[in-house]
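Notes from the 1:1 (GR / supervisor)

We went over the backlog. Supervisor wanted to see one worked example end to end before approving the batch request, so GR pasted a single chain during the call. The sequence is below; no edits were made to it. Supervisor asked that the structure be written out right there so they could see what the output format looks like.
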Amino acid sequence: MIFTKLAKTFSIISIILISSLFLAAIHYTSYTTLKDTLFDPFFIDAVIFSITTAFFATLISMILGIPVGYTLARSKLKFWRFVEIGFDLPLVLPPLIIGVMLLITFNSPLIKHFYTFVFTPSGAVVAQTLVGLPLTIKAAKTAFQLISPIYERVAMTLGAKPFKSFYDTTFKMAFPGILSGLILTWLRCIGEFGATLMIGGGIPGKTVNVPINIYLNMASGDFNKGITASLLMVIFSFLCIVIIRAIIFNRTR
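Structure output shown during the call:
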């Protein structure tokens, strides 16, 4: 009973803390600043860049992450447990370090001979992919682990080919969980800062996403625009999380 009361007390304190941050941002935001931010060409470019690069990064994460998640969920070899540690590294490493490693890699003469990734949108997509990919892998792995392989085997005994049996049974049942992971990946890519700044260079109108736009505004002393853009990001992320919760709720209902 005492533990329950303590848990509720700390929950209320956490809610108050998070709400105070949101209310503080609202306090420093006015209608004029909101209008100026929404119609600011640099902010519009940053939004377009964020959505575009995050989309392609999420698409690549989906293509790579779903097969990897399925392999990790089904394989019992210890080798894949070791490989999974490598996929978890971007979750614990500061994104800035990932950006530094990418910068060193892409500056090698061999890669530069074929394609230039440094200070380009393509480099930003690669950086966001590396940061967001583990979220897709973990979501896919968890979703596939909840589905018994017996469904695929039964489908194959009824004449279905391996891929069709996988798609019609396991994939369709796991899809809501995978979709939630993809939305989280997309949000993580939109909010990526360190790696994108390091490999993209933060060039206005070319490789600036919303977080970098906020950083540049704050660094230049335009605090109102930086705070307003931050508030818009919070609202957008909140709405996306609500969508994710709705997907999970419909799945478990």
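Supervisor's comment: The chain has one domain: 16-252.
Batch request approved.
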